[in-house]
């Protein structure tokens, strides 16, 4: 996605080939509010939607689906973020403390009732006690909390426009091949944490009192024009970062999956964990967060897509963090689908090393219920165990370019259970012994040809 004007990412043949070489079959495509409504007359930019549509079509022809994402970080440029157009945000109507209080007392800016902006303009350099978390500290400002609160309640201009945004976007893309889902809001903040600190301090409260009602409201707006395309709801952002359980209960937006992110508390937007202590912290953070989310999903009775992880550079420590998290998406517990947040665009000098961590063998389709999934990116060993429920094909993507340059072999057990077919970057398995259905597990194993590295 592109967070700056004209808000249209570059997608060319080389980029598509790079995605396909690592087995990507879905991308997250930002459809920015500023791109849809660039001017204060609130007229839809039809050209922008058409260009996003062209990208969806090009990707789909290559076998790649798109998740359309209402993306924001810290709401708007007026409060040191991006997402909502400046014309939709009047900071004087927030009745908030000077920016960036209470996150920091340094370099304060006052709300101006005439311009609707902070005067002087906010200094967006990280500062104060929280500067170690970078731009994220501005979520903790009073301005951010109150802007999100009005947005969720539908009382601000941006809050009123978000329903028009979703009816416009969903209306334009309904029934369009290649659109996998609508992500209803990236990293939703908790709301007015200064007035209601329990939104920040108590796990699950924000999903019940602020974020959850917003998700229901815009989900209804989508369903008014598109009854079929799935939507992705998200936890309040602080619950992602604090590894806390979400406050949603079973039956929340029934049938819709949850989107969430996995980021380490150290090394993100940089080289990953670079010291033994930081590595231990990250591994605990990653494992505990995934354990918590899998528990949430089991309780909710729904699926999930990790729509962001990574955001590290190509240093060895960053690549090691990518591999660790990707391995834990496979298990233990339910396997998780994921989309990577690319800190480096493909084409950097070390792209092979970077892409090798993402080019994992994985099941594209399974004719049954997965019991376990394992892939070792070091030696190329892959094992899938599932209980078959039909004679449909089970398909496993294997990246010959990155893991099996010298070829690969595949087998299925128990003996005589299945027909195994090898193709380019693909292993297909058909269960031919119907007595196994719903009874015994099938084990699919893939490895490099003996002697190959």
Q: Describe it for me?
A:
The protein contains twelve helices and 17 strands. The relative contact order is 0.08. It has a domain at 361-453: Golgi alpha-mannosidase II (Immunoglobulin-like, Sandwich), CATH 2.60.40.1180. It is globular. It has 453 residues and is of the alpha/beta class. It is 30% helix and 18% strand. α10 runs parallel beside α11 (316-330) and α11 packs parallel to α12. A four-stranded parallel beta sheet has the order 1-2-5-6, with helices on one face. The chain starts with 12 loop residues before the first helix and ends in a 5-residue tail after the last strand. It has helices spanning 13-21, 33-36, 46-61, 142-153, 157-173, 198-201, 205-209, 211-225, 237-241, 276-300, 316-330, 351-358; strands spanning 26-30, 65-69, 110-111, 118-119, 179-183, 230-232, 258-262, 304-309, 337-338, 362-365, 368-375, 382-388, 394-397, 408-413, 418-423, 426-431, 442-448.
List keywords for this structure.
453 residues; 17 strands; 12 helices; 18% strand; 4-stranded antiparallel β-sheet; Immunoglobulin-like; globular; alpha/beta
């Amino acid at each position: 996605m592109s967070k700056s004007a004209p808000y249209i990412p570059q997608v060319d043949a080389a980029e598509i080939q790079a995605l396909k070489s690592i087995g990507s079959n879905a991308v997250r495509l930002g459809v920015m509010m500023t791109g849809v409504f660039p001017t204060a007359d609130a007229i839809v930019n039809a050209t922008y939607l058409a260009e996003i549509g062209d990208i969806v079509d090009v990707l789909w022809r290559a076998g790649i689906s798109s998740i359309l994402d209402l993306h924001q970080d810290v709401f708007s440029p007026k409060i040191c973020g991006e997402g909502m157009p400046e014309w939709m945000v009047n900071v004087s109507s927030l009745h908030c403390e000077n920016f960036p209080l209470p996150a920091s007392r340094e370099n304060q800016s006052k709300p101006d009732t005439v311009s609707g902006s902070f005067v002087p303009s906010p200094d967006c350099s990280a500062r104060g006690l929280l500067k170690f978390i970078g731009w994220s500290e501005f979520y903790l400002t009073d301005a951010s909390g109150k802007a999100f609160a009005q947005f969720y309640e539908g009382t601000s201009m941006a809050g009123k426009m978000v329903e028009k945004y979703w009816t416009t976007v969903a209306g334009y893309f309904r029934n369009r091949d290649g659109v996998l889902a609508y992500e209803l809001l990236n990293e939703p903040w908790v709301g007015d944490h200064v007035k209601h600190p329990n939104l920040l301090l108590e796990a699950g409260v924000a999903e019940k009192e602020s974020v959850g009602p917003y998700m229901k409201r815009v989900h209804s707006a989508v369903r008014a024009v598109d009854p079929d395309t799935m939507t992705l709801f998200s936890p309040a952002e602080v619950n992602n970062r604090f590894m806390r359980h979400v406050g949603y209960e079973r039956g929340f937006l029934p049938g819709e999956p949850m989107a969430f992110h996995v980021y380490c508390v150290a090394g993100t937007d940089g080289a990953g964990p670079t010291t033994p202590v930081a590595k231990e912290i990250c591994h605990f953070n990653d494992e505990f967060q995934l354990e918590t989310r899998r528990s949430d999903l089991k309780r909710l009775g729904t699926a999930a897509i990790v729509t962001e992880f990574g955001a590290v550079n190509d240093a060895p420590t960053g690549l090691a963090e990518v591999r660790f998290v990707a391995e834990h998406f496979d298990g233990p517990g339910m396997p998780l689908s994921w989309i990577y947040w690319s800190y480096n665009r493909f084409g950097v000098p070390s792209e092979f090393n970077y892409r090798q961590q993402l080019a994992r063998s994985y099941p594209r389709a399974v004719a049954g219920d997965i019991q376990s999934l394992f892939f070792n990116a070091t030696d190329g060993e892959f094992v899938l165990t599932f209980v078959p429920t039909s004679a449909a094909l089970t398909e496993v993507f294997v990246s010959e370019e990155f893991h099996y340059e010298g070829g690969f072999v595949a087998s299925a057990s128990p003996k005589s259970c299945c027909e195994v077919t090898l193709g380019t970057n693909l292993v297909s398995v058909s269960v031919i012994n119907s007595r196994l259905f719903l009874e015994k597990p099938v084990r699919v194993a893939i490895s490099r040809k003996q002697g190959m590295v």
